Structure formats: structure tokens, C-alpha cells
Amino acid sequence: xxxxxxxxxxxxxxxxxxxxxxxxxxxxxxxxxxxxxxxxxxxxxxxxxxxxxxxxxxxxxxxxxxxxxxxxxxxxxxxxxxxxxxxxxxxxxxxxxxxxxxxxxxxxxxxxxxxxxxxxxxxxxxxxxxxxxxxxxxxxxxxxxxxxxxxxxxxxxxxxxxxxxxxxxxxxxxxxxxxxxxxxxxxxxxxxxxxxxxxxxxxxxxxxxxxxxxxxxxxxxxxxxxxxxxxxxxxxxxxxxxxxxxxxxxxxxxxxxxxxxxxxxxxxxxxxxxxxxxxxxxxxxxxxxxxxxxxxxxxxxxxxxxxxxxxxxxxxxxxxxxxxxxxxxxxxxxxxxxxxxxxxxxxxxxxxxxxxxxxxxxxxxxxxxxxxxxxxxxxxxxxxxxxxxxxxxxxxxxxxxxxxxxxxxxxxxxxxxxxxxxx
Length: 423
Ligand SMILES: Nc1nc2c(c(=O)[nH]1)N[C@H]1C(S)=C(S)[C@@H](COP(=O)(O)O)O[C@H]1N2
Ligand SMILES: [Mo]
Known about the structure:
Number of helices: 11
Shape: elongated
Helix content: 25-40%
Number of strands: 10
Distance between the termini: 67 Å
Order of helices and strands: HHHHHHHHEEHEEHEEHEEEE
Bound molecules: the ligand Nc1nc2c(c(=O)[nH]1)N[C@H]1C(S)=C(S)[C@@H](COP(=O)(O)O)O[C@H]1N2, molybdenum atom
């Protein structure tokens, strides 16, 4: 068998699409260069929003070590910050899927090229490509599975997606640095082939290894193929973005997950993540008789009934819920007791960090840690009402946390216990 036997994928003659070529690959590459960079940055930023460095409960990524070098105290302003960063992260990630697939398709002959390596430098380059392609597929797959299938890797999604992101992005930077000059050259060359009004001036065949030596007759132009990829991305965009915008546009989010719990209408009629039934919340524990909020701090522990909480000063704030999965609600009017007033009750004029525990006995999100700046914000509440009505069981009755700009997962529902300063 010879190396150039066109029946073998290792032979350039095996690959016959007339679309493959440096221009096609470069256009897709430049789109990904911008897109993946935005994904990486919004991903890191959204990770910081979890307070992963605050306590083991929020995040179990072990030994993130120097990879956590950039972590910072997530602000509470603007109050829609996480809604923006995570909406962008998820929506852009989904929108880029066709571009990623087209890019991989456009270079697939390279994957089979033999010999596997002709020099050490070449071997290193091919290993970096393995990390690039593997890392890219891994990040996109885990991201989509997490959004669509509701945490298939319970608890372990964060470390997987986080470590994967660093591997992928490191390989991505190396690849971009190596290939950008070639990409720019082939894009420029293509432009020079077109006159001032876009008419074709010359049609020299494109050089480069990606071009098939024995192409089949074209059924679509390269430009047409790009329109097709762009159209697929656009379709994903318009069927996804609605979940982050919320309100009536949520209905356009055909690809949004969680058709499951229908929030119904009325004041509590907005997106529900986990229902009370799912979380195993027993109505007997949440009733006026049984439920007590246990607040612990410097001066000891106090137990408050709902009636006692209602005698404290009540405040309102308009805040959204924005989930890591990319969906958000529009602003809802929450009413309840300020977290900093509860901190003052147990001896803190200057609120410290806060550890929140729910009535829920199992499940990843039954507890969360909030940072002092989040507790101190006057809009941060232990909410008892939403939009003028008592919280529904599914939205966390009798009381839930709501904090500006925080990821939904920190807005603990069915709160049972608040521990200030214990972190
Ligand atoms: N106790 C408890 N609180 C919880 C959760 C949970 O599963 N259990 N889910 C969190 C997540 S991931 C989100 S996005 C929000 C969703 O709030 P909602 O269902 O009222 O929209 O609640 C948060 N609070
Ligand atoms: Mo969430």
C-alpha cells in the first residue's frame, strides 16, 4: 500500500471536497479566535462569581492552586452583572457550535496525515493539536450537557469544565500564535483577488495542504458554505438567547432546557429550577408552627418564627435570578429582611461572611457561602414575599436568599439556618 493511495484517509486524494482550503479555514478560525476568547474570559469571570475561594461548600475544585490566582470578591453592582456574563457565556457557546464543527471539518484531513511526526517540533505541534481539538470538544460537550441535561455530572461539572478550560485555552493560544500569520495572509490574499466592487479579478488556485488535489465538482461555493454555517449559528442564537432575556422572549427559547416545571401565572409565575417536591421539602416543616430560622453569630444563636421576622423592618428590591445554565428571569420584586439586619441581630455592625443552609437534606445547592460585601448590600434580603405575594413552595417558601449580581445557585431556597462569621 502506498502512502498516497486515495482509498486511505492518510492520502490527500482521499479528501475530495472542493470547499476545503486556507481561506475557508481562516475565516472560521478568526471567528473562533474572537469567540473562544470571550468564552474563556466570561467563563473565568462567572467562576469567580461562585465565591469558590470562600468556603469548601461553594466549590469543590481541589487544588485549583495557581489557576485560581485571579479570583476576586464578586461585586453586587451592577445588579444584572452575572445575568450578563453568564447569559453571554452560554448563548455564545451554543451559537459557536456550528463554527467549531465546520472548522474541525475543514481541517480533518490533517488529523490523518502520516507520518504522525517528522520531527520533535512537529510532534509537539501535533500533541498541542490533540489538546486543542480534545479540549475544545470537551468544553463544548460538557457545557452543553450541563445546560441541557441539568447537571449530568453533579458537583463535578465545575472542576471538569474549569480544568478543561485551562487546557483548551493554553492549546488555543499556542495554536493562534502559530497560525494567525497564515490566516491573515490567506484572508488578505483573497481580498486582493477581488476588485474594489467585489468582482473577481483573478482566480489563481489557492495554495496549501488543505486543498484537495482531486476535488469533486462544487455543489456550493465556499462563500455559500460560510453562509450556511452562519445561518445555523443564527438559528441557534435566536432559539437560545430568549432564555437569558426572559419575559415574553422566553417563549422563543425553543432550545432552552427545563420544560419540566411549569411556573404557571401570577406573582410567582417565573422560572423554577428545582421544585419543593424534587428537593424533598415537606410542607409540615415549612408551616408557621414548625419553621424557625436559626441565626448564629458572635453573640450566640437566636431562633425566629416567621411572625417575628415579619415584625422586623421589611425592605424591597427588584432583582433577577440568573442561573449558571444561562437562563434568567427578569427583575422580580422581593420583600423581606435585610441580611445585614440579621447580622446586626447576632452582634455584627459590620457584616461578616455568611453560611446559609436550607431545609433540604440532599442535593448540591442546599447550602451556600456569601461574602461580606454581599451580606452588607442593602438590597440583599432574606425574602419572604415576591411580587407582593408570599413565596410559593417552589420559589423557597417560607424564606429564601436573594443577592444582587450573584449566580442563582447562591440564592438558597427554603432557608433554615444562617451562620455569620464562621467561614
Ligand atoms: N435549597 C435550594 N436552593 C436553591 C436551589 C436548590 O436546588 N436548592 N437551586 C439554586 C439554583 S441553581 C437556582 S438557579 C435558583 C433558582 O431559583 P428559582 O427556582 O426560584 O427560580 O435557586 C437556587 N436555590
Ligand atoms: Mo442555577
